[in-house]
Each structure stands twice: as structure tokens, then as C-alpha cells.
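To: structure desk
From: M.T.
Subject: fold request, one chain
Message: Could you run this one when you get a chance? Sequence is below, nothing fancy, just the single chain.
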Amino acid sequence: MADFKFLHTMIRVKDLDKSMDFYTRLLGMKELRRTDFPTGKFTLAFVGYGDEVNSTVVELTHNWDQVEPYEIGTGFGHLALGVPDIYGVCENLAKEGVSIPRPPGPMKHGSSVIAFIEDPDGYKIELVEKKGM
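Reply: Done. C-alpha cells follow.
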């Protein structure tokens, strides 16, 4: 098991362009690769902060015929990102209209400063302040 490596987390997105804008422009990830599968009517796009060899990334799966929003369900929790200035990041995201259901502040029963935002499909993303990043 020492040879195992965490590669990616996959989430389904309704509007790939909107999601790509959110993850790249607003969260600063890079589009690493994108592949269309016409016979399956879906696109896979991978985004992240580093290459797939050295970093865990997010796979955005866009099913071309999806009309209704996805149900996130009760099993999925959130993705987590470390940020150097959580208050500044949240201020900028709020200006872009990003939903921030849990504004930045100290975590209950802990010392970390956290916030929760939502991507265009409603997936929760925890922001954790990491000074000195």
C-alpha cells in the first residue's frame, strides 16, 4: 500500500464553462487537460494547482445531455483548499457572486480559521487559512 497515491476527486458539473471559470479564474487552478468523448456524450476536464504527477487534482465530469442540476446527496462532504488570507479571498469571491454559506472565522472547538464556499453546482469547498503559503 505504500505505493498507492491519491490521484483525483471527480464531481459532475452541469455547465462546464461556468465550472471551469470558477475553478480556474476564481480559485486559481490550472486546466490540466480536457477530453471529449462524443460516443459517450461527456467531457472530462482536470484542474489543479500542480501537475497530476505530483498533485491531487479535481476531475470535472460534464455529461452533455444533463438538463437538471445534480443532487449532491448526503454522503459527499466537501473539497478543502488552503489559502493564505481567508478574509481577503472570501471578500474577492463575494464580489464575484460566489455563495459563502459559512463566512470566514475561527472553527468551533478548534483554532483553525475556516470558511465554506459553493461552486456553481453547489458543491461545498472548505477554505482553511494557512499563513505563510
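Reply (cont.): DSSP finds two helices and eight strands in the chain. Let me know if you need anything else for the meeting.
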